[in-house]
Amino acid sequence: MTSLTGTGGLVRLVVRRDRVLLPIWTLLFGLIPISFVASIRDLYPTAADQAKYASTSGTNPTFLALYGQLWDNGIGGIVVQRAGFVPVMLGLVSALTVIRHTRTEEEAGRRELVGATVVGRHAALAAALIVTIAANLVIGALLALGMTGQDLPAAGSAAFGLQLAMAGIVFAAIAGVAAQLTEGSGAARGLALGTLGVLFVVRLAADVGGKDSGLSWLAWLSPLGWGNRLRPYGGEQWWVLALFAVLILALVYASVALSARRDVGAGFLPPRLGPATAARGLSTPLGLAWRLHRAALLGWTVGLGALGVVYGSVAEGVKTMVEDNPDLEKYFTRIGGQEGLIDAFLASSLSILGVIASGYAIQAALRMRTEETSGRAEPVLGTATSRIGWVASHLAFSLLGPTVALLASGLAVGLAHGINSGDVGGQLPRVLGATLVQLPAVWLLTGIALALFGLLPRLTAVAWAALALFFLLGQFGAVLQLSQSVMDVSPFTHIPKLPGGELQVAPLAWLLGLTTILVVAGLYGFRRRDLEST
Amino acid sequence: MNTAISVRGLVKTFGRTRALDELDLTVTSGEVHGFLGPNGSGKSTTIRVLLGLLRADAGSAELLGGDPWREATELHRRLAYVPGDVTLWPNLTGGEVIDLLGRLRGGLNRQRRQDLLERFELDPRKKGRAYSKGNRQKVGLIAALASDVELLILDEPTSGLDPLMEEVFQQCIQDERRSGRTVLLSSHILSEVEALCDRVTIIRKGRAVESGTLNELRHLTRTSIQAELSSPPNGLSTMPGVHDIEIDGTKIKLEVDSVKLDPVLKQLVQSGVVSLTSQPPTLEELFLRHYEDDLAVQNAEGAAS
Question: Which residues contact A335 (CB under 8 A, 6 or more apart)?
Answer without folding.
Answer: A341, A344
